[in-house]
Automatic annotation (TrEMBL):
Keywords: Transferase. Residues 11-139 form the Glycosyltransferase subfamily 4-like N-terminal domain. The keyword Transferase applies. One of its GO terms (molecular function) is glycosyltransferase activity. It holds the Pfam family Glyco_transf_4. Coiled coil: none annotated. The keyword Oxidoreductase does not apply. This is Glycosyl transferases group 1. CDD domains: GT4_PimA-like (cd03801).
Length: 345
């Protein structure tokens, strides 16, 4: 069930081709939420599912009102203390935090996508959650290509540089693309390497304006072939200020890319499985990333192998779906009195 119209990168047809029915909504953000809630509740009454599982603020708000009709789950993907403020401004962001927190407290089974996020929810709000880490499709992000790096660079209209850095994701304040651009421009390696910025967002125009004339920084906008860019690159960079558990980083590591990551809880959680898979830098000042870029001696021929191994052993889609299946079975087998009581953290 969707709330808003699908974008150009929708996977709806893939889901439908697999034999599943989708109920499409036409809700414009928070406006119209009441009417779409009534529609969804009517569909639930008709369909009578065993479980409703929501992702995000608006779905969580609606899911909170079906608690007496189905077993309700919610996966929390972001911190409730920062992302929305950075994305929508202080007032709107705080309102969204409050609304989602209230909704999550009414949902029987909240699930955090990362250990660090579960710890935050417990310590800040007293919410016990299960933990199911995001999972990557290793058959798609398999680190193999029928084309050489040089052929991929030509196909992607990128120069045949000795080193290629790539970053992907929304161009927003919490992703801090300016830090990456500034450090790359000021570094010695930035004089001979290439930086590819995949993604779009409210900061794109400002980003392009700031580095206008730099022939070594490329903006792609949103792409549907991110694997090609990862396979053409030598390193992946993320300077995020806050994350739940970033799929962009996991996808890069699945493609054998060493990762250069800001020192935040979500990134530490990933590299804690094997710190040989990448490096953390203190994002408080751009000088820290500059030094990291100009001192990549930690990279060995095995670094990418360690990165891939972390994903295969801890962040595959098979591991993720297996954990969700176990939680669903547990929840549906519990009595009404037991439901909604995760083991105490």
């Amino acid at each position: 069930m969707t709330l808003s119209p699908e974008g150009s990168d929708s996977l709806a047809s893939t889901v439908q081709d697999a034999g599943f029915k989708i109920y499409f909504g036409n809700c414009d953000r928070l406006r119209g939420l009441y009417s779409v809630r009534r529609h969804i509740l009517a569909v639930i009454d008709q369909f009578q599912p065993d479980i409703t599982h929501s992702h995000g603020v608006r779905p969580d708000i609606i899911n909170a009102f079906v608690n007496n009709k189905t077993v309700t789950f919610s996966t929390i993907h972001n911190s409730l203390n920062g992302v929305y403020k950075l994305k929508y401004g202080k007032l709107t962001g705080e309102m969204m935090d409050i609304l989602q927190l209230a909704a999550i407290k009414r949902i029987r089974y909240p699930v955090a996508c990362a250990k660090t996020l579960a710890e935050e929810l417990k310590s800040n709000y007293g919410i016990n959650t299960a933990i199911v880490s995001n999972g990557i499709d290793l058959s798609v992000f398999n680190g193999t290509s029928t084309k050489t790096k040089k052929e991929l660079l030509i196909e992607l209209n990128l120069p045949d540089a000795s080193l290629v850095f790539v970053t992907s994701g929304a161009l927003t304040a919490w992703k801090d693309p300016f830090l990456i651009m500034n450090a790359f421009t000021a570094s010695a390696i930035g004089k001979k390497a290439v930086l590819v910025i995949c993604g779009d967002g409210p900061l794109r125009e400002a980003c392009q304006k700031q580095v206008a004339g730099n022939p070594r920084i490329y903006f792609t906008g949103n792409v549907c072939n991110i694997k090609s860019y990862l396979m053409a690159a030598d390193y992946f960079i993320s300077a995020s200020k806050i994350e739940g558990l970033p799929n962009a980083v996991l996808e890069a590591m699945a493609c054998y890319l060493p990762v250069i990551l800001s020192d935040i809880p979500a990134h530490r959680e990933i590299l804690a499985y094997d710190y040989r898979a990448g490096i953390l830098f203190d994002q408080a000042h751009s000088e820290n990333l500059i030094r990291t870029l100009d001192n990549l001696d930690f990279i060995t021929s095995d670094t990418g192998l360690y990165a891939r191994k972390v994903i295969k052993n801890h962040f595959s889609k098979e591991i993720m779906t297996g954990k969700y299946a176990a939680l669903y079975e547990m929840a549906c087998s519990q009595s009404d009195r037991e439901r909604g009581l995760w083991p105490k953290a």
